[in-house]
Every structure is written in C-alpha cells, then in structure tokens.
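User: quick one, sequence for these tokens?
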C-alpha cells in the first residue's frame, strides 16, 4: 500500500474522530491503518463498503476543514494585531476563545460555556477541527471590528494645518 493510501486512512481517522463517530468505529479505522502499515504496499485494499464509508466521511470533513482554515487565518490576524508574546508563543484570550501559537503549532480553544479545543494545526496541517459555522461568524465579526478599529479617522489621526 503506497504511503499516500496510509495517509488517507489517517485522514479518515481524523475525520471520523472530529465528526464524532463512536469509539468502536474509530478503533476499526485504527486497525485498518495498522493492517495497511504492516502490509507495506503488498496487496492491502479496502472493501468497497469501507471505501464508500471513508469517502463519505472525508467529504463531510471538507466543510469542517474549510471552517478550520478560515478560523486559522482569522486567528493569525488577531494574534498579529493584539496577541501577546510570551517566550516561544503568542497568545490572546478573549471572552469566548483562547488562541495560542508557537513556531509550528496553532491551537484555538473555546473557553465558554465548556472548554474545548476546536482547532489544532501542526506544521501547517489541521490535526483536529470541530469549528462550527457560528465560530466562523464570531471570528469574522471580531476581525472586522479589529480592522475598523485600526482605520484612522479624521478625529483620531488629527488634522494638520
């Protein structure tokens, strides 16, 4: 099995986990990954029903990944404007979200009403995302507010005569 197929099974596992599939299903995917790794390209294949299940999960996961990518971009902007750098990381904590970035990792946590990591990116690749459409809207509004606060107005810039 080529490495790309093993990577696809790993992607399927991430997708199934973030989509909230039950632990038994996740264990089955994990076992498929281990079998694929052991086969090392020698005749390993997925049954058609598993291929279909994997394709459905990966397709559903696309929306979560797109929302995750949007929140990652918004987080970068927020951190660059108002993030506080402490040692090797930059962070920002608002009323609802906490953002933390190091050289190779970005973590976004929802702190209320129940703390939860909603996005984790390592080396530019999404490791976990459960970003909702509501999260995206909140980030969009916050970034818009940040941008409008930074636009100089005639009163804040002062008028030179």
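Assistant:
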């Amino acid at each position: 099995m080529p490495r790309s197929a093993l990577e696809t099974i790993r992607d399927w596992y991430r997708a199934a986990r973030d989509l909230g599939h039950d632990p038994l299903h996740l264990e089955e995917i994990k076992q498929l990954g281990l079998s694929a790794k052991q086969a090392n390209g020698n005749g390993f294949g997925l049954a058609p029903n598993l291929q279909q299940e994997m394709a459905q999960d990966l397709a559903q996961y696309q929306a979560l990944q797109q929302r995750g990518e949007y929140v990652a971009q918004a987080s970068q902007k927020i951190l660059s404007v108002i993030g506080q750098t402490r040692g090797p990381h930059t962070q920002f904590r608002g009323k609802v979200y906490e953002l933390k970035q190091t050289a190779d990792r970005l973590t976004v946590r929802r702190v209320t009403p129940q703390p939860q990591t909603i996005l984790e990116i390592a080396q530019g690749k999404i490791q976990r995302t459960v970003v909702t459409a509501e999260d995206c809207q909140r980030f969009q509004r916050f970034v818009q507010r940040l941008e409008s606060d930074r636009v100089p107005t005639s009163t804040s810039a002062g008028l030179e005569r």
